[in-house]
Amino acid sequence: MLFPNRKNWLILILKKLNMIVIEDDISSIDQGNEELESDHDHPHHHQHHKQDQVILVSSQDDHNDETLRIIQSESTDHTQSFQNNNDLEMEELDLKENGDVDGANQRSSNSSFFIVKIFNSIEKEVKYTVHLAVGFLFIFFGFSPTQNLMSVDLLVINIISISSSSSFQNIPKISFLYFPASILVGTAASILWTSQPAYISRAAKNEKELGKYSSIFNSIYTCGGISGNGMSGILNSSGVPITVVLVIFGSVALLGVILVGLVRNIPSKVKEPVLSIKVTLINVFSCFKDRPIQILFPLLILQGLTQGYFFSVIPKLVGLEQTGFVMVMFGVASVVGSSIWGVVHDRLGKKILVVAMLLILPASLLFCALGNYSQRVFLFYAASTLNGAFDSLQNIYIFAIIATIYPTDNISEYSVTRFLQSLCTAVSFFTFGHLTLYVIIPILMTVLLVSTFTQFYLISQHNSNKFKTIKNNNNIDNNDNNIETSIHP
Fold it and tell me: Which residue intervals make up region (Disordered) (predicted)?
């Protein structure tokens, strides 16, 4: 029958659309179908109801079609709304993802800007000091372990090095190449260690910043000794040939030379006259007449002698395999000490540094004597640690005292102090190799006591403005060169 099929078709569509069919509509359709069936059973009523039934069915069909259209329209609207919601959610997700990317880029940009801002806020003098220190770091990464590999047995090398203002060569074999190498090492060392303190003193704006800049330089450059000696210990323990070791260290030192060559100049705080070589040499030797320099002599002698103790005596006592690691302790203590002593100087003054020197060196000598007697290596490690602290203390104090007394035009004074220190270093490397430890200890203690008293005297006299320095800069009046800065008590 036609209408039951229509009913089933409509119900199927409604179920497909997950809609609820109004029960009255279905009942009306069933009623119409029953009436049609009744007409077949009672033909005499067929004509009477035919027109009404057709109208009813047509009306019912129209009603069903309208319901379908409404349902389909609502379904289409629902689908379109769902699609629009999905599109909106996708757009929001895209915006969020793009926002996250943009935010990440913004944060990265802000971080980079923050780093650049911090870098730009650093004083240019600090940047220049760090640059110089990094160059020295690479130089002494290669040179420091080479110096400590073996003890000095050649008198002629020391004599040649003395003539060049420094003795840092430490080579045990005789070869014609060692003579020019020794000359180059001595000459280079005298240039480096004369220009370095003069450069750092120009970087410091005033006396209270001397310790700061000296600490920055020493803390960085002594890391070269730590890493270099550590590498030396590893290579020697691994049985690497000495030639390969020297090539490695020489290459690193060459990189440091290039960096130092690129250091920017720091102008002097005051206008200084351009001096000829002759006048410069006269100024250097004239400094020996300056009373402050004369009072510094015992301390400069002590600094030179302790270099022989640090880098010749102890390496011989501990042996080649332990030398690198012992010198690492020296370097670590030197870095830590450089960071501490500069702050101590700027806050507490110079006298406290003199007292610290009086305490540290005797303790180091005691550990070394006990280590030599008991043959316990850890005592040499302790002695080397104290030596590193003492060496950084000496360097900062000598730099600060000269920069305070001679705040400008101090290259001649640093040259004199480096000359005397290098001369004593050469003497110590030669003589300590022929003396026992128990003879070396009294020598160092005697010089230490004398230098302690002279430094207390120097500080007190300078604070009283009783010193007049001698300057001979092309007939510049001496009175113009009198220094009126005071040292921290």
Answer: 33-52
Tens-digit pLDDT profile for residues 235-284: 877 888 888 888 888 899 899 989 988 888 887 766 666 666 677 677 77
DSSP 124-168: HHHHHHHHHHHHHHHHHHHHHHHHHSS----HHHHHHHHHTT---
Q: Is the pTM of this model over 0.85?
A: no
pLDDT digits (tens, 9 = 90+) for 46-103: 444 444 444 444 454 555 555 545 545 555 555 555 455 555 556 555 555 555 545 5
Write the DSSP symbol of residue 472.
-
- The domain boundary, picked from 56, 74, 94, lies at 94
Domain, as residue range, for 418:
122-481
The reply to whether 63 and 206 lie within a common domain is no
Residues 139 and 74 in one domain: no
Q: What is the dihedral of CA 280, 281, 286, 291, to 10 degrees?
A: 80
Distances in Å between the Cα of 107 and the Cα atoms of 120, 297, 407 are 19, 58, 46
Nearest to 290 by CA among 462, 476, 460, 425: 462
Using CA atoms, how far apart are residues 224 and 142, in angstroms rounded to an integer?
8
Burial class (CB in 10 A: 0-12, 13-18, 19+), 93: exposed
**Among the ranges given (157-171, 236-250, 395-409, 462-476), the one the predictor scored with the smallest mean pLDDT:** 157-171
* Other Cβ atoms closer than 10 A to 232: 27
The string of DSSP letters for 313-366 reads IHHHHH-HHHHHHHHHHHHHHHHHHHHHHHHHHHHH-SHHHHHHHHHHHHHHHH
Task: State both tokens at 336.
Answer: 């830590």
Both 152 and 30 in one domain: the answer is no
Q: How far apart are CA 103 and CA 109, in angstroms?
A: 10
State the DSSP code for 229: H
Count of domains forming the chain = 2
Q: What angle do CA 198, 333, 329 make, to 5 degrees?
A: 125
* Torsion over CA: 158, 428, 287, 206 (sign): positive
Number of Cα atoms under 13 Å in the Cβ half of residue 34: 6
Tokens of 38: 């009744």
Distance in angstroms (rounded) separating the CA atoms of residues 337 and 373: 28
C-alpha closest to that of 218 among 95, 414, 480, 400: 400
Please check whether residues 372 and 271 belong to one and the same domain: yes
CATH of residue 410's domain is: 1.20.1250
Locate 229 and state its tokens. Answer: 């000696």
**Residue 102, CB-side half-sphere exposure with 13 Å CA sphere:** 6
CB 50 within 8 A of CB 44: no
Distance of CA 81 to the CA centre of its chain: 61
Residues 298 and 409 in one domain: yes
Share in percent of the chain as helix, strand, coil (round to 5): 80, 0, 20
